[in-house]
Protein backbone atom coordinates (compact mmCIF):
# COMPACT_ATOMS: atom_id res chain seq x y z
CA UNK A 1 0.00 0.00 0.00
CA UNK A 2 1.30 3.45 -0.91
CA UNK A 3 1.63 5.98 1.91
CA UNK A 4 -1.09 8.61 1.87
CA UNK A 5 -0.24 12.29 1.71
CA UNK A 6 -1.55 14.72 4.31
CA UNK A 7 -4.81 16.32 3.27
CA UNK A 8 -6.92 19.22 4.61
CA UNK A 9 -9.85 16.84 4.79
CA UNK A 10 -11.47 14.70 2.11
CA UNK A 11 -15.02 13.39 2.12
CA UNK A 12 -15.61 9.98 3.69
CA UNK A 13 -17.17 8.96 0.39
CA UNK A 14 -13.75 9.11 -1.28
CA UNK A 15 -12.10 6.75 1.21
CA UNK A 16 -10.01 3.78 0.18
CA UNK A 17 -7.81 1.71 2.51
CA UNK A 18 -4.63 3.57 3.49
CA UNK A 19 -2.00 2.78 6.13
CA UNK A 20 -3.07 5.69 8.34
CA UNK A 21 -6.43 7.48 8.35
CA UNK A 22 -7.63 10.17 10.77
CA UNK A 23 -11.32 11.05 10.98
CA UNK A 24 -11.73 14.53 12.45
CA UNK A 25 -15.01 15.99 13.67
CA UNK A 26 -17.82 15.32 16.10
CA UNK A 27 -20.42 14.04 13.61
CA UNK A 28 -20.64 10.43 14.73
CA UNK A 29 -22.84 9.44 11.81
CA UNK A 30 -20.23 10.47 9.23
CA UNK A 31 -17.52 8.69 11.22
CA UNK A 32 -19.63 5.54 11.38
CA UNK A 33 -20.16 5.66 7.60
CA UNK A 34 -16.39 6.00 7.11
CA UNK A 35 -15.67 3.01 9.34
CA UNK A 36 -18.40 1.02 7.59
CA UNK A 37 -17.03 1.83 4.14
CA UNK A 38 -13.51 0.74 5.05
CA UNK A 39 -14.81 -2.44 6.65
CA UNK A 40 -16.71 -3.35 3.50
CA UNK A 41 -13.69 -2.64 1.32
CA UNK A 42 -11.40 -4.67 3.57
CA UNK A 43 -13.87 -7.56 3.63
CA UNK A 44 -12.97 -8.35 0.01
CA UNK A 45 -9.57 -9.54 1.26
CA UNK A 46 -9.36 -12.91 2.95
CA UNK A 47 -5.99 -12.21 4.59
CA UNK A 48 -7.00 -9.18 6.66
CA UNK A 49 -7.91 -9.22 10.35
CA UNK A 50 -10.35 -6.67 11.82
CA UNK A 51 -9.94 -5.26 15.36
CA UNK A 52 -11.79 -2.50 17.19
CA UNK A 53 -10.10 -0.57 20.03
CA UNK A 54 -11.32 2.12 22.41
CA UNK A 55 -8.65 4.69 23.27
CA UNK A 56 -10.35 5.61 26.55
CA UNK A 57 -10.33 2.08 27.99
CA UNK A 58 -7.17 0.92 26.22
CA UNK A 59 -4.86 -1.63 27.85
CA UNK A 60 -1.07 -1.61 27.23
CA UNK A 61 0.01 -3.67 24.23
CA UNK A 62 -3.40 -3.93 22.54
CA UNK A 63 -2.33 -1.85 19.53
CA UNK A 64 0.84 -3.88 19.03
CA UNK A 65 -1.17 -7.09 19.12
CA UNK A 66 -3.82 -5.73 16.75
CA UNK A 67 -1.28 -4.53 14.18
CA UNK A 68 0.94 -7.64 14.19
CA UNK A 69 0.73 -10.34 11.53
CA UNK A 70 -0.46 -13.81 12.49
CA UNK A 71 -0.89 -17.28 11.08
CA UNK A 72 -4.33 -16.29 9.82
CA UNK A 73 -3.69 -12.82 8.42
CA UNK A 74 -0.93 -10.82 6.77
CA UNK A 75 -2.64 -7.44 7.25
CA UNK A 76 -4.89 -5.77 9.79
CA UNK A 77 -7.73 -3.26 9.78
CA UNK A 78 -7.69 -1.55 13.17
CA UNK A 79 -10.37 0.89 14.26
CA UNK A 80 -9.63 3.25 17.14
CA UNK A 81 -12.62 5.02 18.67
CA UNK A 82 -12.88 7.76 21.31
CA UNK A 83 -9.48 9.25 20.56
CA UNK A 84 -10.48 12.49 22.29
CA UNK A 85 -10.60 10.60 25.61
CA UNK A 86 -7.46 8.51 25.12
CA UNK A 87 -5.54 7.32 28.16
CA UNK A 88 -1.78 7.51 28.61
CA UNK A 89 -1.32 3.84 27.65
CA UNK A 90 -2.79 4.42 24.22
CA UNK A 91 -0.83 7.64 23.70
CA UNK A 92 2.46 5.88 24.40
CA UNK A 93 1.73 2.84 22.21
CA UNK A 94 0.35 4.95 19.34
CA UNK A 95 3.41 7.19 19.27
CA UNK A 96 5.63 4.12 19.15
CA UNK A 97 3.60 2.59 16.32
CA UNK A 98 3.84 5.78 14.24
CA UNK A 99 7.63 5.55 14.37
CA UNK A 100 7.52 2.13 12.71
CA UNK A 101 4.26 1.67 10.81
CA UNK A 102 3.39 -1.53 9.01
CA UNK A 103 2.43 -0.37 5.49
CA UNK A 104 0.20 -3.40 4.88
CA UNK A 105 -2.10 -2.38 7.76
CA UNK A 106 -5.03 0.04 7.79
CA UNK A 107 -5.18 2.07 11.01
CA UNK A 108 -8.20 4.36 11.20
CA UNK A 109 -8.67 6.69 14.17
CA UNK A 110 -11.58 8.97 15.06
CA UNK A 111 -10.91 12.25 16.88
CA UNK A 112 -14.15 14.08 17.72
CA UNK A 113 -12.46 17.23 19.05
CA UNK A 114 -11.25 18.85 22.24
CA UNK A 115 -7.85 19.68 23.66
CA UNK A 116 -6.63 16.24 24.73
CA UNK A 117 -4.18 14.37 22.52
CA UNK A 118 -2.73 17.29 20.54
CA UNK A 119 0.71 15.68 20.62
CA UNK A 120 -0.62 12.50 19.06
CA UNK A 121 -2.67 14.40 16.47
CA UNK A 122 0.41 16.29 15.33
CA UNK A 123 2.34 13.03 15.11
CA UNK A 124 -0.43 11.37 13.10
CA UNK A 125 -0.54 14.24 10.62
CA UNK A 126 3.25 14.36 10.38
CA UNK A 127 3.24 10.64 9.61
CA UNK A 128 1.26 11.33 6.42
CA UNK A 129 -2.24 10.42 7.58
CA UNK A 130 -5.18 10.80 5.25
CA UNK A 131 -7.43 13.37 6.95
CA UNK A 132 -11.17 12.80 6.58
CA UNK A 133 -13.74 15.50 7.32
CA UNK A 134 -16.41 14.39 9.82
CA UNK A 135 -17.48 17.84 10.95
CA UNK A 136 -21.21 18.35 11.69
CA UNK A 137 -23.40 19.32 8.75
CA UNK A 138 -25.54 22.25 9.85
CA UNK A 139 -26.40 24.36 6.82
CA UNK A 140 -29.36 23.32 4.69
CA UNK A 141 -27.22 23.63 1.56
CA UNK A 142 -24.83 21.01 2.97
CA UNK A 143 -27.73 18.72 3.88
CA UNK A 144 -29.06 19.04 0.33
CA UNK A 145 -25.63 18.08 -1.03
CA UNK A 146 -25.60 15.10 1.34
CA UNK A 147 -29.00 13.86 0.14
CA UNK A 148 -28.11 14.32 -3.51
CA UNK A 149 -24.87 12.39 -2.98
CA UNK A 150 -26.75 9.53 -1.28
CA UNK A 151 -29.05 9.11 -4.27
CA UNK A 152 -26.25 9.59 -6.78
CA UNK A 153 -24.25 6.83 -5.08
CA UNK A 154 -27.31 4.56 -5.32
CA UNK A 155 -27.81 5.54 -8.99
CA UNK A 156 -31.32 6.79 -8.23
CA UNK A 157 -32.92 10.04 -9.39
CA UNK A 158 -34.60 12.45 -6.99
CA UNK A 159 -36.09 15.80 -7.97
CA UNK A 160 -34.88 19.05 -6.42
CA UNK A 161 -38.25 19.67 -4.76
CA UNK A 162 -38.17 16.19 -3.24
CA UNK A 163 -34.68 16.81 -1.84
CA UNK A 164 -35.80 20.05 -0.20
CA UNK A 165 -38.91 18.41 1.23
CA UNK A 166 -36.88 15.56 2.68
CA UNK A 167 -34.41 17.97 4.32
CA UNK A 168 -37.32 19.99 5.73
CA UNK A 169 -38.97 16.86 7.10
CA UNK A 170 -36.04 15.02 8.70
CA UNK A 171 -33.04 17.33 8.41
CA UNK A 172 -32.53 17.99 12.12
CA UNK A 173 -30.59 14.74 12.52
CA UNK A 174 -28.04 13.69 9.90
CA UNK A 175 -28.37 10.06 10.96
CA UNK A 176 -32.14 10.21 10.48
CA UNK A 177 -31.68 11.98 7.16
CA UNK A 178 -29.34 9.25 5.95
CA UNK A 179 -31.70 6.52 7.14
CA UNK A 180 -34.60 8.22 5.35
CA UNK A 181 -32.60 8.33 2.12
CA UNK A 182 -31.90 4.62 2.36
CA UNK A 183 -35.54 3.84 3.09
CA UNK A 184 -36.70 5.73 0.01
CA UNK A 185 -34.03 4.04 -2.12
CA UNK A 186 -35.01 0.56 -0.92
CA UNK A 187 -38.79 0.97 -0.78
CA UNK A 188 -39.44 2.83 -4.04
CA UNK A 189 -38.72 2.52 -7.74
CA UNK A 190 -38.20 5.09 -10.45
CA UNK A 191 -37.77 8.81 -9.88
CA UNK A 192 -38.47 10.04 -6.36
CA UNK A 193 -40.51 13.24 -6.45
CA UNK A 194 -42.10 15.45 -3.83
CA UNK A 195 -45.29 13.37 -3.79
CA UNK A 196 -43.30 10.29 -2.79
CA UNK A 197 -41.47 12.17 -0.03
CA UNK A 198 -44.75 13.62 1.26
CA UNK A 199 -46.28 10.15 1.32
CA UNK A 200 -43.47 8.85 3.53
CA UNK A 201 -42.62 11.91 5.62
CA UNK A 202 -45.33 14.51 5.04
CA UNK A 203 -46.72 13.97 8.52
CA UNK A 204 -43.50 14.96 10.22
CA UNK A 205 -43.59 18.08 12.40
CA UNK A 206 -40.96 19.90 10.36
CA UNK A 207 -42.65 19.18 7.04
CA UNK A 208 -46.08 20.18 8.37
CA UNK A 209 -44.71 23.42 9.83
CA UNK A 210 -43.24 24.46 6.50
CA UNK A 211 -46.52 23.76 4.71
CA UNK A 212 -48.44 25.86 7.23
CA UNK A 213 -45.95 28.73 6.98
CA UNK A 214 -45.78 28.70 3.19
CA UNK A 215 -49.58 28.70 2.87
CA UNK A 216 -49.95 31.58 5.35
CA UNK A 217 -47.29 33.70 3.62
CA UNK A 218 -48.99 33.03 0.29
CA UNK A 219 -52.28 34.35 1.70
CA UNK A 220 -53.96 30.93 1.58
CA UNK A 221 -55.53 31.00 5.04
CA UNK A 222 -57.82 28.03 4.35
CA UNK A 223 -54.99 25.67 3.41
CA UNK A 224 -52.84 26.89 6.30
CA UNK A 225 -55.63 26.38 8.86
CA UNK A 226 -56.65 22.98 7.47
CA UNK A 227 -53.05 21.75 7.63
CA UNK A 228 -52.58 23.23 11.09
CA UNK A 229 -55.77 21.74 12.56
CA UNK A 230 -55.00 18.29 11.20
CA UNK A 231 -51.51 18.54 12.66
CA UNK A 232 -52.75 19.67 16.09
CA UNK A 233 -55.47 17.00 16.11
CA UNK A 234 -52.84 14.31 15.63
CA UNK A 235 -50.79 15.54 18.59
CA UNK A 236 -48.28 17.93 17.06
CA UNK A 237 -46.82 20.50 19.45
CA UNK A 238 -47.56 24.08 18.26
CA UNK A 239 -44.15 25.42 19.38
CA UNK A 240 -42.11 24.15 16.37
CA UNK A 241 -44.81 25.46 14.03
CA UNK A 242 -44.50 28.93 15.56
CA UNK A 243 -40.71 28.67 15.29
CA UNK A 244 -40.97 27.81 11.59
CA UNK A 245 -43.35 30.69 10.97
CA UNK A 246 -40.93 33.05 12.69
CA UNK A 247 -37.99 31.73 10.66
CA UNK A 248 -39.84 32.06 7.35
CA UNK A 249 -40.94 35.63 8.12
CA UNK A 250 -37.39 36.58 9.15
CA UNK A 251 -36.08 35.17 5.89
CA UNK A 252 -38.70 37.14 3.99
CA UNK A 253 -37.66 40.31 5.82
CA UNK A 254 -34.00 39.73 4.96
CA UNK A 255 -34.58 39.59 1.20
CA UNK A 256 -37.39 42.18 0.94
CA UNK A 257 -36.37 44.89 -1.50
CA UNK A 258 -32.98 43.27 -2.21
CA UNK A 259 -32.47 42.51 -5.91
CA UNK A 260 -29.13 40.74 -5.76
CA UNK A 261 -28.83 37.18 -7.13
CA UNK A 262 -29.59 34.40 -4.65
CA UNK A 263 -26.12 32.89 -4.99
CA UNK A 264 -24.40 36.10 -3.87
CA UNK A 265 -26.87 36.72 -1.03
CA UNK A 266 -26.80 33.19 0.40
CA UNK A 267 -23.46 33.45 2.20
CA UNK A 268 -24.13 36.97 3.43
CA UNK A 269 -27.52 36.04 4.90
CA UNK A 270 -26.50 32.62 6.23
CA UNK A 271 -29.06 30.87 4.02
CA UNK A 272 -28.92 28.28 1.25
CA UNK A 273 -29.36 29.62 -2.29
CA UNK A 274 -32.69 27.81 -2.68
CA UNK A 275 -33.90 29.35 0.58
CA UNK A 276 -33.03 32.83 -0.71
CA UNK A 277 -34.84 32.11 -3.99
CA UNK A 278 -37.93 30.85 -2.16
CA UNK A 279 -37.93 33.85 0.18
CA UNK A 280 -37.52 36.25 -2.75
CA UNK A 281 -40.53 34.69 -4.47
CA UNK A 282 -42.61 34.92 -1.30
CA UNK A 283 -41.51 38.52 -0.71
CA UNK A 284 -42.99 39.81 -3.97
CA UNK A 285 -45.73 42.28 -3.19
CA UNK A 286 -45.13 42.34 0.55
CA UNK A 287 -44.86 45.72 2.28
CA UNK A 288 -42.13 46.24 4.82
CA UNK A 289 -44.59 47.64 7.36
CA UNK A 290 -46.76 44.51 7.07
CA UNK A 291 -43.74 42.26 7.53
CA UNK A 292 -42.85 44.17 10.69
CA UNK A 293 -46.40 43.69 12.00
CA UNK A 294 -46.18 39.95 11.30
CA UNK A 295 -42.88 39.69 13.16
CA UNK A 296 -44.45 41.45 16.15
CA UNK A 297 -47.51 39.20 15.96
CA UNK A 298 -45.39 36.03 15.88
CA UNK A 299 -43.39 37.21 18.89
CA UNK A 300 -46.66 37.61 20.81
CA UNK A 301 -47.88 34.22 19.59
CA UNK A 302 -44.63 32.60 20.70
CA UNK A 303 -45.25 33.85 24.24
CA UNK A 304 -48.86 32.61 24.10
CA UNK A 305 -47.97 29.05 23.08
CA UNK A 306 -45.22 28.84 25.72
CA UNK A 307 -47.55 29.38 28.63
CA UNK A 308 -48.77 32.94 28.20
CA UNK A 309 -52.22 31.95 26.97
CA UNK A 310 -54.92 29.41 27.71
CA UNK A 311 -55.18 27.98 24.20
CA UNK A 312 -51.93 27.66 22.18
CA UNK A 313 -53.82 26.26 19.20
CA UNK A 314 -56.23 29.21 19.12
CA UNK A 315 -53.33 31.68 19.38
CA UNK A 316 -51.60 29.98 16.47
CA UNK A 317 -54.76 30.04 14.36
CA UNK A 318 -55.13 33.78 14.97
CA UNK A 319 -51.51 34.34 13.97
CA UNK A 320 -51.99 32.43 10.72
CA UNK A 321 -55.10 34.43 9.88
CA UNK A 322 -53.26 37.66 10.63
CA UNK A 323 -50.27 36.74 8.43
CA UNK A 324 -52.53 35.56 5.60
CA UNK A 325 -54.50 38.83 5.77
CA UNK A 326 -51.29 40.83 5.30
CA UNK A 327 -50.06 38.74 2.37
CA UNK A 328 -50.35 40.42 -1.05
CA UNK A 329 -53.21 39.27 -3.23
CA UNK A 330 -51.93 37.37 -6.24
TrEMBL record:
What gene is this protein a product of? holA
Name by which UniProt lists this protein: DNA-directed DNA polymerase
Q: What class of enzyme is it?
A: transferase
Catalytic activity as recorded in UniProt:
DNA(n) + a 2'-deoxyribonucleoside 5'-triphosphate = DNA(n+1) + diphosphate
Against SUPFAM superfamilies, the record matches this protein to: post-AAA+ oligomerization domain-like
Q: Name one GO molecular function term.
A: DNA-directed DNA polymerase activity
Please tell me the species this chain comes from: Glutamicibacter bergerei
Instruction: Indicate the segments forming the DNA polymerase III delta subunit-like C-terminal domain, all copies.
Output: 207-321
User: Carries keyword Nucleotidyltransferase?
Assistant: yes
